[in-house]
Amino acid sequence: MSSIRSSCRVCGSQTRPLFSAKVLGKYDIQYEECAMCGFVQTETPYWLDEAYSSAFTTTDTGTLQRSLIMGRSAAAIAYFLCNRSGRFVDYAGGYGTLTRYMRDVGFDFYSTDLYAQNIIARGFDAAPGRYEMATAFECFEHFVNPAEELTKILAYSDTIFFTTQPCPDPAPAVDKWWYYAPHHGQHVALYRPRTLKILGQQFGLNYYNVRNYHLFTRKQIPSFSFSFLVLAGRFGLGHLIGLLMKSRILSDAALLETRTKEGALIP
């Protein structure tokens, strides 16, 4: 294992070598850990063009189920902690699955993603501007420079609801924790709660966490409120909110039909 040390891409402190792993089945890559903030990072990732030849990994068969589960929690957060009548954006929204689900529930959601085409929520791409809340599901682990990416999300909203699996402490061996995922090479940033708290503090954000769900916001909220809404959203509250909101399914269909007739949307 190399003894060369580099700087933490979250707090700038010196890292220590953690282990080496074969990424994409062929590149011997070093993983490093920051003793100060607990961030785990790969060496500077030079293989990402190859890793992102597809926006989604072939072995990820649970993406739809996770979108639905995360959407229920997002509905609870949006309904009770935000102006539920406002606009929302799904950052790194992939094919638009979450955006379409949230619009079906009744929220005015839009999607943005530099690397994937919005297929499922066509016609609802996010324009620059301010939004009530940004969701960012399963993308923080892909950030080469977390602070730069967080700056981009903050251009949309000061409230960011996101998911990422917290790295256990001490860090497991590469074959003892599935979330390293060296086989697809896309997970280059792994966090602990203290890492995310430090990252948020750099931007004046409060940080709340329960399991793999996280919230950055300038608002002051009781920690138990966030935990309750996330978990209750998953187990029933999300369905209730769907009954309280007015679905946009029919109104979106009418809007898209009008746009198509006007030539603003290609069928």
From TrEMBL:
The organism's place on the tree of life at top rank: Bacteria
Molecular-function GO terms, alphabetical: methyltransferase activity
Entries under Pfam families matching the protein: Methyltransf_23
Transmembrane segments: 224-245
GO biological process, one term: methylation
Signal peptide feature range: none
Record key words, sorted: Membrane, Methyltransferase, Transferase, Transmembrane, Transmembrane helix
Coiled-coil portions: none
Name of this protein: Methyltransferase domain-containing protein
Organism, scientific name: Rudanella paleaurantiibacter
Lineage: Bacteria, Pseudomonadati, Bacteroidota, Cytophagia, Cytophagales
